Amino acid sequence: MYNIKVESNFSSAHNLRGYKGKCEELHGHNWKVMVELERDSLDKLGMVFDFQFVKKELYKVLEKLDHKYLNKVSYFKRVNPTSEALAKYIYGLLKRKLKNIKSVTVWESENCSATYHE
Q: Domain residues of the chain, as ranges?
Protein backbone atom coordinates (compact mmCIF):
# COMPACT_ATOMS: atom_id res chain seq x y z
CA MET A 1 0.00 0.00 0.00
CA TYR A 2 1.29 3.48 -0.90
CA ASN A 3 0.37 6.75 0.80
CA ILE A 4 1.09 10.38 0.03
CA LYS A 5 0.35 13.41 2.17
CA VAL A 6 -0.07 17.04 1.22
CA GLU A 7 -0.23 19.84 3.78
CA SER A 8 -1.46 23.40 3.56
CA ASN A 9 -2.93 26.03 5.86
CA PHE A 10 -5.42 28.83 6.17
CA SER A 11 -6.53 31.38 8.75
CA SER A 12 -10.08 31.97 9.89
CA ALA A 13 -12.28 32.86 12.83
CA HIS A 14 -15.18 31.02 14.41
CA ASN A 15 -17.10 30.51 17.60
CA LEU A 16 -18.69 27.31 18.84
CA ARG A 17 -22.43 27.54 19.33
CA GLY A 18 -23.70 25.93 22.52
CA TYR A 19 -20.21 25.50 23.98
CA LYS A 20 -19.70 26.67 27.56
CA GLY A 21 -16.23 28.14 27.79
CA LYS A 22 -13.77 30.34 25.96
CA CYS A 23 -14.50 28.82 22.54
CA GLU A 24 -18.06 30.15 22.54
CA GLU A 25 -16.50 33.58 22.01
CA LEU A 26 -15.27 34.71 18.61
CA HIS A 27 -11.64 33.65 18.12
CA GLY A 28 -9.29 32.69 15.33
CA HIS A 29 -6.89 29.93 14.33
CA ASN A 30 -4.09 29.39 11.88
CA TRP A 31 -5.34 26.00 10.73
CA LYS A 32 -3.07 23.34 9.24
CA VAL A 33 -4.66 20.77 6.93
CA MET A 34 -3.21 17.46 5.75
CA VAL A 35 -4.76 15.34 3.01
CA GLU A 36 -3.73 11.71 2.75
CA LEU A 37 -4.26 9.63 -0.38
CA GLU A 38 -3.76 5.87 -0.66
CA ARG A 39 -3.45 3.27 -3.42
CA ASP A 40 -2.33 -0.32 -3.49
CA SER A 41 -0.41 0.21 -6.73
CA LEU A 42 1.29 3.06 -8.53
CA ASP A 43 0.13 4.61 -11.79
CA LYS A 44 2.10 4.29 -15.03
CA LEU A 45 4.39 7.15 -13.94
CA GLY A 46 5.12 5.47 -10.61
CA MET A 47 2.97 7.82 -8.52
CA VAL A 48 0.03 7.47 -6.15
CA PHE A 49 -1.28 10.81 -7.39
CA ASP A 50 0.25 13.97 -8.83
CA PHE A 51 1.28 16.22 -5.91
CA GLN A 52 0.65 19.35 -7.99
CA PHE A 53 -2.93 18.34 -8.73
CA VAL A 54 -3.60 17.53 -5.05
CA LYS A 55 -2.13 20.87 -3.95
CA LYS A 56 -4.24 22.73 -6.52
CA GLU A 57 -7.47 21.04 -5.42
CA LEU A 58 -6.70 21.57 -1.74
CA TYR A 59 -5.97 25.25 -2.42
CA LYS A 60 -9.37 25.65 -4.11
CA VAL A 61 -11.14 24.30 -1.02
CA LEU A 62 -9.11 26.23 1.53
CA GLU A 63 -9.50 29.46 -0.44
CA LYS A 64 -13.22 29.29 0.43
CA LEU A 65 -12.31 29.24 4.15
CA ASP A 66 -9.28 31.53 4.31
CA HIS A 67 -9.82 34.77 6.22
CA LYS A 68 -13.50 33.96 6.67
CA TYR A 69 -15.76 33.91 9.69
CA LEU A 70 -16.58 30.20 9.44
CA ASN A 71 -19.98 30.53 11.13
CA LYS A 72 -21.12 32.53 8.07
CA VAL A 73 -19.97 29.92 5.52
CA SER A 74 -23.13 28.22 4.25
CA TYR A 75 -22.28 24.70 5.49
CA PHE A 76 -21.39 25.95 8.97
CA LYS A 77 -24.60 27.90 9.41
CA ARG A 78 -26.19 24.55 10.33
CA VAL A 79 -23.10 22.62 11.49
CA ASN A 80 -20.97 23.82 14.40
CA PRO A 81 -17.54 24.79 12.95
CA THR A 82 -15.46 22.40 15.06
CA SER A 83 -12.17 20.93 13.90
CA GLU A 84 -13.99 17.63 13.35
CA ALA A 85 -16.62 19.29 11.17
CA LEU A 86 -13.95 21.15 9.20
CA ALA A 87 -12.12 17.88 8.48
CA LYS A 88 -15.35 16.28 7.22
CA TYR A 89 -16.27 19.33 5.12
CA ILE A 90 -12.85 19.48 3.45
CA TYR A 91 -12.87 15.70 2.88
CA GLY A 92 -16.29 15.89 1.24
CA LEU A 93 -15.26 18.61 -1.19
CA LEU A 94 -11.96 16.93 -2.07
CA LYS A 95 -13.54 13.49 -2.54
CA ARG A 96 -15.22 14.79 -5.70
CA LYS A 97 -11.80 15.32 -7.35
CA LEU A 98 -9.48 12.94 -5.48
CA LYS A 99 -10.76 9.38 -5.80
CA ASN A 100 -8.04 7.85 -3.63
CA ILE A 101 -8.51 10.17 -0.65
CA LYS A 102 -7.97 8.35 2.62
CA SER A 103 -8.32 11.08 5.24
CA VAL A 104 -8.19 14.76 6.08
CA THR A 105 -6.60 16.00 9.31
CA VAL A 106 -7.14 19.53 10.59
CA TRP A 107 -4.98 21.11 13.31
CA GLU A 108 -6.38 24.08 15.19
CA SER A 109 -3.15 24.35 17.18
CA GLU A 110 0.23 22.62 17.28
CA ASN A 111 -1.06 20.00 19.68
CA CYS A 112 -4.74 19.52 18.77
CA SER A 113 -6.08 17.92 15.59
CA ALA A 114 -9.09 16.06 14.25
CA THR A 115 -9.16 13.53 11.42
CA TYR A 116 -12.03 12.46 9.18
CA HIS A 117 -12.08 9.36 6.97
CA GLU A 118 -14.75 7.07 5.59
A: 2-116
